[in-house]
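Re: that chain you flagged

S.,

Sorry for the slow reply, it's been a week of failed gels. I finally had a moment to sit down with the sequence you sent. For the record, here it is as I used it:
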Amino acid sequence: MALPSEAAKSLHEVRSRVASVKTAVYGSTYGNKKQLMSVVCECLKYADILNEIIDCCNLISSDKRFKRNKDLALVVLCRYVFGKGLNGCYSTYKKVIESQKSAIHSAVERVKLRHKVTDLRHAVKEAEDSPALPRYLRVNTLVSQISKVISTLTSQGYSHTHPQETCPTEKFVYIDPDIDNLLVLPTNTDLHSSPLLKDGSVVLQDKASCLPAHVLNPSPGSHVIDACAAPGNKTSHLAALLNNTGTITAFELNTKRCRVLENMLKRARVTCCRVENADFTQCDVTQYSNVEYILVDPSCSGSGK
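Prediction finished late last night. Pasting the structure tokens below so you have them in one place:
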């Protein structure tokens, strides 16, 4: 499926709260995840502005594809207003956009006036004064060791430093002082195509998302339930803490997210987990009398709750 359609599909899942951005993108069949992530994130960033423009013009009713799928209209309009033109896979929408060109431009000018800006991008309210969060990288000890991962990163130009030190370069890495096997890197670090990620040596996981398994700290050999398991970051973290001993029963109600979970566990080389495509609240508790730990993150939002 073409990028605009796949982006619209992922955007709809995120906006309707069916999935997080990462789950929607990595659950997509579209091959270039980095490209898809970029499109979805840009559409989310400008969603309010794009909706204002749509409300001021006749774009949705101008094409049956947009009538059926407003998220597709958002993706195409975002490309037209903020992107690099309707070429390549977007060319199929060029005719309908051109037919509405005057109305769209008028709508853009009205939105600028409403927000008192000359550049539409400035209408987006961003917390520019807030400190940017770093990029966190959890070392998967089922595959590698923290020393090996740091060695690989330093060979790629990263400077191994400490939290208290001012890093002399833009590319730094240090060990998080609170959570074992968690590395801290600069905000703009992009490791989506890194061999470390592809072979399961590391997991892109926020610090808040690492806290539940870290605090639960199950003993090796124990039986654990992950009640809302997808996309699998916390489940794989539990498996690492167990050193692939004992048993994890990972429940996930949504079938699509269940496949994402299974792929994640396979990449992380988790062998102690049984995935259940079922509702945890409806399970037969008599089957789990030996369970010693339960992890529940019903939102799977990265909040650490």
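What I noticed first: The longest helix spans residues 101-115.

Talk soon,
D.
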